[in-house]
Amino acid sequence: MDCQTVRMTAGIDEVPVHDWLVANVDGLEGPFTYERVAGGRSNLTFEVTDARGRKLVLRRPPLSHVIEKAHDMAREHRVIAALGTTGVPVPRARGLCLDRSVTGADFYVMDFVEGYVPHTEAEAEAIEDRHGMSRHVIDVLGDLHDVDPGEVGLADLGRGTGYVDRQLRRWQQAWEFMKQRELPAMEEAHRRLVNSVPDQQKTVIAHGDYRLGNMMVHGDRVAGLLDWELCTLGDPLADLGYLINNWAEEGEHAEWSSAPTAVGGFASRTEMIDWYGDRSGLDMSGISYYRAFAYWRMGCIVEGVYARFLQGAYGEDHGENVEAFADAVVRMSDAALEHVP
């Protein structure tokens, strides 16, 4: 590779990454171009294009302020490789690099999936059958939760039972480590959630970040389910509660990030909950708790994103209003208190 042609990309040491890709992924031909994919606030995602136009996607942790268990590339690669044998729509895993001398961190590569991620109302409006798309979102979630972890080699992905209790402990520890200020509402929401944890009805492969903004859409279908960094064995209603929080109804504003479903034409939250309840056979009466838990946990996550921005983990040219992240945490802590029993 002619080093004179290399352009610098934050998070990619292009010469050794070039050599690794050529050696480990069949059919690639350098040189490669790397384009940071917008939308991810934790791990960094790059679209990689080779000399013949073939595209892959490369995922790696942020540049600094990394919590190892929250940015485990081997785990994420393992999950999508296992689910690639099922009907769950995931990109095909192509390779995992655990040699940090290559680009300063573990990373993995997977196939590029045609389509787009509908982050905004304008992008969601391009979906012609939005009500049908809503049903497919629930069907994909049901398909994921129907996968037997043991049959795909993921029986040891997590403890499974006691999921919410463990998540409350884990994210409270992360909150204490990452928080940039004191927020009494976050502490009060945590206290209430700890004191009213419902019984877990089932153990499933839980995505952990299941929302339209983590789905590659092609036509009116979910073509690829992305961002598996929070996946573990857990409570299916935690996935549903999180989805519903992000499922803004027409004209509503999002508590966090964008609200693509607010464009209208999508199913209502009630329809989504009823569809999932009918498919799963689970009791939906406690869904408000799971919504509160999802708001609180997302507050912890976004505070971590805010901290990493302040630490420079996303580079200097990120084009973000950083204080918007701090404000979102306040809104989510208030939302958690509104929903917790």
Topology:
Layout (H helix, E strand, L loop, with lengths): L13 H11 L8 E4 L7 E6 L5 E6 L12 H11 L9 E5 L9 E5 L9 H5 L4 H17 L16 H16 L5 H11 L9 E3 L8 E4 L2 E5 L6 E3 L1 H10 L23 H12 L6 H25 L10 H18 L2
Antiparallel strand pairs: 1-2, 2-3, 3-5, 4-5, 6-9, 7-8
Helix pairs in contact: 4-8, 5-9, 6-9, 6-10, 7-9, 9-10
In short:
This protein is an alpha+beta fold and 341 residues long. It folds into 2 domains: 3-111, Phosphorylase Kinase, domain 1 (2-Layer Sandwich), CATH 3.30.200; 121-339, Aminoglycoside phosphotransferase (APH), C-terminal lobe (Aminoglycoside 3'-phosphotransferase, Chain: A, domain 2). The chain has helices at residues 14-24, 73-83, 121-125, 130-146, 163-178, 184-194, 236-245, 269-280, 287-311, 322-339, and strands spanning 33-36, 44-49, 55-60, 93-97, 107-111, 204-206, 215-218, 221-225, 232-234.
The domain tally reads: 2
What's the architecture of the largest domain, going by CATH?
Alpha-Beta Complex
Overall, the morphology is: globular
User: Would you state the CATH class of the largest domain?
Assistant: Alpha Beta
CATH superfamily of the largest domain: Aminoglycoside phosphotransferase (APH), C-terminal lobe
Helix amount, in percent? 25-40%
Global mean pLDDT: 91
**Number of distinct beta strands:** 9
Determine the CATH topology of the largest domain. Answer: Aminoglycoside 3'-phosphotransferase, Chain: A, domain 2
User: So how many helices?
Assistant: 10
Which runs of at least 5 residues are low in confidence (pLDDT < 50)?
Answer: 1-6
